[in-house]
Amino acid sequence: MDPRAIGIFDSGIGGLMAVRMLRHLLPGEPILYLGDTARMPYGDRPAGEIGRLTGELTGWLLRQNVKALIAACGTISCNAGETLQQLPVPCFDVVTAAAEAAARTTRNGKVGLAATSATIHSGRFAEEIEKRTGQAVTAVPCPRLAPMIEHGANPYNHPEMITAVAEYCQPMLQSGVDTVVLGCTHYPLIAELFAQILGPEVTLIDCAGEAAKSAAKALKEQHLLVEGHSPAAVEYRFTALPPQAAQQTARRMLGEDFTPRLLPLEELTAFSAE
Ligand code: DGL
User: Fold this and answer.
1) For a substitution probing ligand 1, which of 16, 78, 116, 239 has the most ligand atoms within 8 Å of its CB?
2) Using CA of residue 159, residue 163, residue 168, residue 174, what is the dihedral sign?
3) Is residue 73 annotated as part of the catalytic site, yes or no?
4) pTM of the predicted model, to two decimals?
5) CB of residue 185 inside a 6 A radius of ligand 1
6) For 177-215, how does the pLDDT look when each residue is reduced to its tens digit (9 = 90+)?
7) Of residues 73, 91, 169, 207, which has the active-site annotation?
8) 228-235: average pLDDT
9) Which atom of ligand 1 lies nearest, measured to the CA of 72?
10) Is the beta carbon of 188 within 6 A of some atom in ligand 1?
């Protein structure tokens, strides 16, 4: 039994999808969430910079004495591998779990990957899927989506968002995919829009949810969980408070209280500089 919190982090609100799954599977686990909203999007940044920012996020979380970490961000998972591998606590990224889920799900072996530019250009996510399916992945960078989602845009009432998703889905529909990995953790927040455009034959994989499932399993095996089922506290820290619309989305998606608190950037960077 280990009463310490599990740290979950992302550039913004996308990682809340991992919180939702973990709350569902392990309600007794305390969670400390960190979103670097002040500096998102990460998905247009070079890998070296993503690695440096990731070091600041993980450094701060480790100072808060977390027992494990979930990098609930495709961009971080694919571009900050070196930083994530050197951590002194178990750390789970979104790639392996989502690639395994995609390979289990696809019937025709044709898998699509929608993710940020940095994730697609790293090649890592597609490679991990291809290793398991033996077929080329249709990988599509979707640079316009995460910032719109972060600002709380309503996917049904936002022509720019609808146009962008339709455009990004086109190559995947053309190549006949039956499974699409939402490889940026922001995208499951607009999963219904993807589903509407891709149609009922295509199964969507939520990479953050898959990461949370595999983290829950591994932490249980390692006896690192709290023994108890009464709901534990979740603390939400952000380097800039998400806009009201995004807070509402988060509340609706989590199905419970969501009270974000500010973590001033100076505090985050000061911790990591020590
Ligand atoms: N949620 C993130 C991801 O999974 C990043 C979005 C961004 O900051 O560009 O890639």
Assistant:
1) 116
2) positive
3) yes
4) 0.96
5) yes
6) 999 999 999 999 999 999 999 999 999 999 999 999 999
7) 73
8) 87
9) 4
10) no
For the question of residue 91 being annotated catalytic, the response is: no
Structure tokens at 213: 């499932």
Q: Is 54 in the pocket of ligand 1 (CB under 6 A)?
A: no
Q: Is 109 helix (H, G, I), strand (E, B) or coil?
A: coil
Q: Is 138 helix (H, G, I), strand (E, B) or coil?
A: strand
**Any ligand 1 atom below 6 A from CB of 216:** no
Evaluate: CB of 73 within 6 angstroms of ligand 1.
yes
Tell me, in angstroms, the distance from the centre of ligand 1 to residue 13's CA: 9
What distance in Å separates the CA atoms of residue 103 and residue 96, rounded to the nearest whole number?
A: 11
Task: Give me the phi and psi of 260, to 5 degrees please.
Answer: -75, 140
Strand order in the sheet with 68-71: 91-93, 68-71, 6-10, 31-35, 234-238, 260-262
| 74 pocket-lining for ligand 1 (C-beta < 6 Å) | yes
CB of 142 closer than 8 Å to CB of 194: no
Distance between CA atoms of residues 21 and 254, nearest Å: 9
- Give the mean model confidence (pLDDT) for residues 162-168: 97
Nearest-angstrom CA–CA distance, 246 and 153? 8
**40 DSSP assignment:** -
Centre of ligand 1 to C-alpha 117, Å, is: 9
| 95-135 confidence digits (pLDDT tens) | 999 999 999 999 999 999 999 999 999 999 999 999 999 99
